[in-house]
Amino acid sequence: MNPRRKKRMFTIIAVLLGIGSAIGLTLYALQENINLFYTPSELIEGKGPNKEKPFIGQKLRIGGMVVPGSVVRNEESLDVEFKLIDTGPLVTIRYHGILPDLFREGQGIVAQGVLIESNVIEAFEVLAKHDEEYMPADVAEAVKGIKHEKPKYNLNNGGY
């Protein structure tokens, strides 16, 4: 192989390695910023055909309805704890901050946070829906086929 071809081959290899490294580093950096969406049922029972559950410490988004009577506010601080439900099990959301004006019991919300126990999320952002007709695409896909019924959970009786 003549020197000119060698130089061209090494240049091509160097460019490909550079592009590959840049793509790899970008994907590695984005790995921490990916927030998967779950419903309370998917969080507890698993998501998809393999029933994959998120791991403790994973960032995620969760959407559902705030259970009436479940909102507990700390009088000393901005800490709030409430339960979230879709059609199955309950998930506890802990949040420190001011909740949106549209937040209320029985309202649909989406929370972003970190899973700290199998059914407890430490939220850093809570978003309340302003209209029951509108749903983000991933929320609409998650609840497609679910019959919209009032949750059967009753806090006064301690269960279903």
Describe this structure in words.
Strand 6 (108-117) and strand 7 (120-128) form a beta hairpin. The chain is of the alpha+beta class and 160 residues long. It contains three helices and seven strands, in the order αβαββββββα. The longest helix is centred in the first third of the chain and has 29 residues, at 3-31. The model has no long low-confidence stretch (mean pLDDT 82). The chain has a five-stranded mixed β-barrel with strand order 2-4-5-7-6. It has helices spanning 3-31, 40-45, 137-143; strands at 36-38, 59-66, 72-73, 79-85, 91-96, 108-117, 120-128.
Gyration radius from CA atoms, angstroms = 22 Å
Beta-strand content estimate: 25-35%
Shape, principal axes of CA atoms: elongated
Share of helix, binned: 25-40%
Count of alpha/pi helices: 3
Summarize the biggest pleated sheet: 5 strands, mixed, barrel
- Straight-line N-to-C gap: 78 Å
Strand order of the main beta sheet, please?
2-4-5-7-6
Tally of extended strands? 7
Oligomer: single chain
Average pLDDT for all residues: 82
* Stretches with pLDDT under 50, minimum 5 residues: none
SSE ordering: HEHEEEEEEH
Secondary structure category:
alpha+beta
